[in-house]
Amino acid sequence: MHFRAASILVLVAATSSACGSGGGGARSAPVTTDTPTPFAASSASAPEGFTAAECAASVDGKPATLKLVVPDGFSSQSVDPSDHSPDGECTWDDPDDRFFSVQVGQTKSLAAERDELEEFEDIGGDDSVEDVTYDTPAELFGGLEGERLTWWSYSDGSPADCVEVQANGIRLYWRSPDDLDQRLDDFDMTLDSVELVRS
User: Fold this and answer.
1) Of 26, 81, 45, the residue nearest 189 (C-alpha)
2) What is the average pLDDT across 108-125?
3) Radius of gyration for the chain, computed over Cα atoms and rounded to the nearest angstrom
4) Adjacent-strand bridge partners of 67
5) Which long-range contacts (CB under 8 A, 24 or more apart) does 74-81 make?
6) What would the pLDDT profile of 10-34 be if each residue is shown by its tens digit?
7) What does the mean pLDDT of the chain come to?
8) Using an 8 Å Cβ cutoff, are 176 and 56 in contact?
9) How far is it, in rounded angstroms, from Cα 128 to Cα 133?
10) 76: how many CB neighbours lie within 10 A of its CB?
């Protein structure tokens, strides 16, 4: 089932995922920051059906922690900042092949991701991309505004709906196989829980 990006709230890109990487849609000025700054979550408590999680990071060379909640059933795949970047990236997935990741210290605009995705839009077959939409400013997490990118992808025989958001140097990415009912309420709950604190 395809979702249309205009009707959803869009979470951090994993370039090896079934959704690929990139971006496309209406042209808007990108919104990025070089250095993440601490902020509080929009919601302070973990709702039923979610588990508290953390991602170790580094901000200006000092330790920091990105705190959030993930849906029950998601298991951590990477929590070591050295696995992916000096600033921190953490990933989770579940038995239904849903995937979620966060990055701290991301300075590349999602507009650049959009431009890469456009190269594959509507080509048909493997690596095809459809329904690419890019929006900014978009209200995201912690009362912050940033960028939102959504698309549908068919890669390695796996169709998937993808959503990616970025603000304050923090990027969140969510992928769901398109044969599943969308669980965008889960994504919204996760977004509301995101906060960055000094360790």
Assistant:
1) 45
2) 87
3) 15
4) 54, 195
5) 74/98, 74/100, 79/54, 79/55, 80/56, 81/56, 81/57
6) 333 333 345 754 434 445 566 666 6
7) 79
8) no
9) 15
10) 13
Q: How far apart are CA 91 and CA 72, in angstroms?
A: 14
Q: Which CATH architecture has domain 5-198?
A: 3-Layer(aba) Sandwich (3.40)
Report how far residue 101's alpha carbon sits from residue 93's, in angstroms, rounded to the nearest whole number.
Answer: 9
167 Cβ contact list (under 8 Å, min separation 6): 31, 33, 140, 141, 142, 144, 145, 146, 147
pTM, full prediction: 0.80
3-class DSSP state of 87: coil
CA distance linking residue 117 with residue 46, whole number of Å: 34
Coil/strand/helix, residue 190: helix
Tokens of 194: 């995101």
Residue with tokens 């579940």: 94
For the chain, helix (H) and strand (E) counts, in that order, are: 2, 10
